[in-house]
Design goal:
12 strands; 238 residues; alpha/beta; Purple Acid Phosphatase, chain A, domain 2; 8 helices; five-stranded mixed β-sheet
Length: 238
């Protein structure tokens, strides 16, 4: 079985377009999208359309990210990131925010051998593999994970940092992000999972894309576009 996993698109149509082409070349059996689909400023409307097209064409399995939950919130005077949310709602078709906010926090595949989530299986906000600015201990990872059933692989996003960890018989993976990198390299990321002779193999993929075009779009049209453009160009952000 061959599985392509990506997430944290953050509204970057330029990165997603290049990444989807790379995934198609590998011809996976299953596609998985780990959430945070459109909360970003490099043409989120087109990023939304691309993700909807991929789902229609490939049956992409989707989970809910923390910023997807934000898009489902009612906007009030106390809503965090209200200006960004108002801009996004104006960009996106009606119902897009409610759709991503209503996705499940996790999915299983391969007969339960693989669990995919944004943060942890029951929370889009909790980091599975990070403890503040450090990597979490194995004990903390297992505590946050809870009952993994018969899973052999757990794969998440959220931290925007690639990582693979073996804890006993369990392989725990962070696939990195399509957009808004934090490690100084702006290229898009996804993970190839392949089951061969009962063993799951993990391959990290990195895909260059036109970061300058994405950054210029952000500068010209996005809310807080200068900040978005800076992160897209440098691969460094909070």
């Amino acid at each position: 079985m061959k599985v392509a996993v990506f997430g944290d698109v953050h509204g970057n149509a330029f990165a997603l377009e290049a990444l989807a082409a790379d995934i198609r070349r590998h011809q996976p059996d299953v596609w998985v999208n780990l959430g945070d689909q459109v909360f970003g400023g490099a043409d989120p409307a087109r990023a939304w359309s691309l993700q909807q097209h991929l789902k229609a064409a490939h049956g992409v399995l989707e989970v809910r990210g923390n910023t997807d939950e934000r898009l489902g919130q009612a906007l009030t005077d106390s809503t965090e990131k209200r200006a960004m949310l108002e801009w996004l709602h104006a960009q996106l078709p009606e119902g897009a925010g409610a759709y991503v906010a209503g996705l499940p926090t996790s999915v299983t595949l391969a007969g339960g051998e693989v669990i995919a989530a944004h943060g942890t299986p029951d929370s889009a906000w909790t980091y599975l593999l990070r403890d503040k600015k450090n990597w979490a201990s194995d004990e903390l990872v297992l505590e946050r994970l809870g009952d993994a059933g018969r899973a052999r692989v757990v794969i998440v996003g959220h931290s925007h940092l690639e990582h693979v960890r073996q804890i006993g018989a369990l392989t725990v993976v962070n696939c990195g992000a399509v957009s808004r990198q934090k490690d100084g390299n702006p290229v898009a990321r996804w993970v190839w999972l392949e089951r061969d002779a009962g063993v799951w193999n993990v391959t990290f993929r990195r895909v260059p894309y036109d970061t300058e075009a994405a950054a210029r779009w952000a500068e010209d049209q996005a809310h807080d576009g200068d900040k978005e453009a800076r992160q897209l160009r440098t691969g460094r952000g909070d």
